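Continuing the series of single-chain predictions for the mutant panel. This is the parent chain; the variants come on the following pages.
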Amino acid sequence: MKHRLFVLAVGSILVASAAYAHHSFAKDFNESKSVTLDGEIVSFDMRNPHSWVYFNVKDSSGAVHKYGAEWFGLRRLQQTGVSATTFKAGDHVTVTGAPNWSATDYSVHLRTIRKDDGWSWPSGTNTARNGGRFGYGRSR
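Parent structure:
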């Protein structure tokens, strides 16, 4: 009996922590707005629970800010054709996303990304699986 209670308690803690870890994007990002940013890739951190694309953006005064674009997790990106080698440092990208609620936190919730070589997400071959129903192109 004690063993069952222990297993139940541990299971409850794990479920609660997983639910807390997967937060709503609306907590951090203003989903009713959209910004478009041009910049150069610094790094791509493809991982769970969310991947991050880091890129440098020059503002109107010429100052450079390092932005982070929060994206899907590892498996979901792999299913859409994105891999750890999709981005290289120095690649020029255009990112569209929901801005962070705080203007001093240089981050966005990624909605689209396009490289100068013509690669883009979501579109083309990287959304062909499942009828193109990954990401923001899917019906809600």
